[in-house]
Each structure stands twice: as C-alpha cells, then as structure tokens.
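Please check our next protein.
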Amino acid sequence: MADPDAMEAVHRALAEHTEADEYRSGRPGPPVVLEVFAYCRFAARQFVERCDDAVRRLRPADSVALEPVALLQQFTVRTGWTGPCYATSAPAAGGATALGLGLGLVESGRVASAYVCEVLRDDETGAFWALATRLRPHPAGTDELVDASPEAPAGVPPDVWARSALAGARREQRSARADRPERLSAAPPLR
C-alpha cells in the first residue's frame, strides 16, 4: 500500500479542483497526470531498507508500495473518479514533465481539460504535500490567465516549495503577463 500521508495529500489536492466535475455523474473524468519523483525516491529507499533488514520479512505490500498510481486510491474511492492516469518521474525536470504532458494533452485537443498533481516531500521531516491544478484552454478571444497553483500549502518549507514545477509555472505566467501579454494567449490557463 502507498504511504497513507501521501495518498491523503494527493486526495486533498485533487479534490479541491474537482468538486463540480461531471465525472461524479459516472462518466469518465479528465485525466490526472501525477508527478511522483519525490514519492518514488521515498518508496525505493524504504523498500531497500526493508530488504536489508535481516529481522523483518518482506511482505507483498512492500513491493506494492513502490507503485505510485496507488497514490490515487483515496481520491478514486472518495469521489468516484474514473479516468486515465499518467505518472511521471523525472529527477532532472521534476514536475515540469507532468506539466508538459498535461499541457500537451489539452493543447492538442485530445482532452477538454486535465489535472496535474505534483507530490512534494520534505526529506528532513518526511512530510508529504501535493499540489494540483487544472489545465484548460483559454476561452476564445481572451488572454486571461488563472493562477497556475494556489499559495504554498501550510507547513511547506520554502526550499520544498521552490522545487515545485507548478509553483514555478505560476511565477513564469505572472512574469509573462507583466512582460509580454501577447505570449499568454498561446498557452492554456492553469486552474
């Protein structure tokens, strides 16, 4: 089983953006793109520690915890969401890979909207946070942009927040809005 704190963080982050979605009617929902590098690094370290522990016997749940898509378990159970899920884990790019995939799905017209959820972890305390946003195309004829992400969740250390690709996208969009408004119409807003 995936780490319960990480599952709860993912559920809370996604549920904030999905209260009124149509999938609650039983139709498939928008895809979720999970950035899970921080979780995978944690799960792999924990698995290695358990393998090296001569006293503790490995259990099937130990290997199942390595599966990052299990982070969606609470979200799917509590909301009834059904839809595709893509997991990315790119150490060098961080959440930028997930954000790029989500933007590509929306910009190509393959989906009307997509959720991107980035799992963050403080290696010192072991605490998990998740940050999610919804990507949609701009309404026709506007260059209005919705913030890419909320403010830092309570308790997130500044260095962890600084690693967030979604927070970085928000900073870039604000900068682009101030510097070059014409650039905004090319990218879908992040909600």
